[in-house]
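REQUEST ID: PR-0412
SUBMITTED BY: lab tech R.K.
PRIORITY: routine
TASK: structure prediction, single protein chain
INPUT:
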Amino acid sequence: MSAQSLFSKLNRIRLTSLVIDSQTALHYISLSLLAVIAFLIRILPARYGIYINEFDPYFQYYATKVIISGIEEKGLLGLFEFFNHKIELTWYPYGVDMGEKYYFGVPYFGAFTYLFLKALGLPVSLYDVAVFMPPVIGVITTLIVYKIAERYVQSRYVAMIGALFFTTAFSVLARSDLGWYDTDGLGMTFLVGSIYFFIRGIESSKPSFKALYGVLAGIFTGLLGATWGAHQYPYLAVAIFVIMAVILDLDVKNIEVLYFPFFAVSTIMLLSVPTNGLSYLVGAVAIIQYLAALILLIRNVVDIKVFTGHLSRIIGLGVFGMIGLIFAVGLLPDVGLKSRQIITVLPFLKEAFVVATTVQEQAGSTFLVFYRDLHVIIPFAIGGFVIVAKRWRDPKYLYLLILSASAAYVANSFVRLSIIFDVFAAVLAAIALKELMSYLVSNLKKGDTNYRIVVFTFVTLFILLSSSMIYLFSIVPMSRTTVSLISHGSPIAQERVSYDWIEALEWIRNNVAPDEVIASWWDYGYWISFIGERKSLADNGTLNATRIKELAEMFMTTDEDKAIEMLKEMGADYVLVYIGVAPVAPDNNDLVMLAGFGEDGKFVAIAKIAGVNSSEFINEDGQGPRLTDAFWETFLGRLIPYEYQSTQPVGAFSVDVYVYSPKYPEAWNLESLEGEKLVMVFRSSDPAPGEVVIYKIVDSQESE
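STATUS: complete
OUTPUT:
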């Protein structure tokens, strides 16, 4: 070989290495950019302050403090403090055994994260961990979704586009943003981790790797079972996949090696979670899993195609199985499912679980919810589903078909679960996008210059449309939305910070005695107990439907004496109401409208739970005020210290205008409590939308 030819060969090798290094560098730069975008969007609410968000995360924070205190006081024995702790602040006088009623995944994950960072010498507080852990977890979830998409599209960059759409979906952002220290944020990581490893197991041809992936998928499913109520979803999806793969006679090599390690590991871990009880041993979910295991075992003894050789038989088996499932879930007294899980699978049973259906996040989805999350990728997601359906004989695609179809179904009946469907919508969209681009590029290679124009136009329009939609539906709402504690869910002027609740909770902490109890609608129970540090009658866990109904009946009765007597029987010393008042004009706080985001709107759900027809409280004919006299005659109506004045045009609309007019005396204007039943002891002062009012229940002996 001549020196010139040797030099030429070395130069080509060097050039090839350079190209490979450049591609690898570009890949990691793009992936890092995806992670940075995912993180930055999630911390946009920080512009209003660093707070834990919403209601439930305050329980998780409280539980984490219990674990940390236990470890600091008792050492390793303190690790079990979560399971030994009884919460005395909620559901007075019963309290709650924390280990029996709540998932422990988030508190332990947060506690271990805090202790690890502290061991490294980093100056972080537990509150910092609770606030900033959700965005970090959101980034990790995004990267796993990217890996799932990559398994199907075999293109790193198209997979990144799919992951970008997932991470910017508003439902996903809202459950993993700054301060969302709750079950579904961390649970989504375990959910997609379980799915990713099971997909790898389906793909793998080596039995040892198949078993390993089955174990890993089972571990992530078990961790999900300790964290979030959606743990039955991946568990059932695997069982249904196995049943269908066998019935349809798909070529899944060594499926037993993948399935049984998953089944064993996940079941053992799920059974070890106290809140799950024995549902994975004797419940409806367990029965379906047993059926999958049985079919696999039978397949090794007889030719299963003898029974499933015709399409009519497959359809018959499916219909029979569905009827059996409906019977088990709908009619049997105990199938190991909670009310929200039952109505998710069988939405026609919603009326049997009134409390569950009045929770906003458990309402059904609408097209607007799907459009808000998916916008420009909706046609791609539909196209991807069609492509996947055509490839159903490939086990990997059958699994995705089961996941995406079932996720769309449950998301339609339970709006909170739209975040699960967003995973598969993003993957389906990536599949369709890859197929379309491959089609255009293949025609481009034929030398037809028209396709150059088509490809350029398509890519340009897609980038412009997608980026504008992400900005409109994700970045803008996140940048303008404050956390609940300083916006309390107000749909009016989200950018306007209100300190009503902070003021009210501080007053409770400083003025209500530790042994006194506050009655309110259950929405505010966690705040009263874990921020105000005082006892409440009900909280956001909605663990006691009987107590919630008693509160609803108390608020909706027209008999004032009966309402006060009910409060005393429940042990209440104070009653708190939150009203969605908003100034009619920015420069006049004396004239207000009732915007409906407090009890002035929640009364519809309260009345439903109390068994009262709420239509009698609403004037539907447009003549006069929206709220009728019947509403103001209820005990709740009396607690709202406002009186209708007139209906006035405000811009293009007409609104009911109210003025402050309390029905009960104000404590600061009284010299004596004699003869009083209720006395207003607190009224928040922030003029921003919303108002918290607290009344003291005057004991007859005290008034004397």
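NOTES: The chain has 32 helices and eleven strands.
REVIEWED BY: pending
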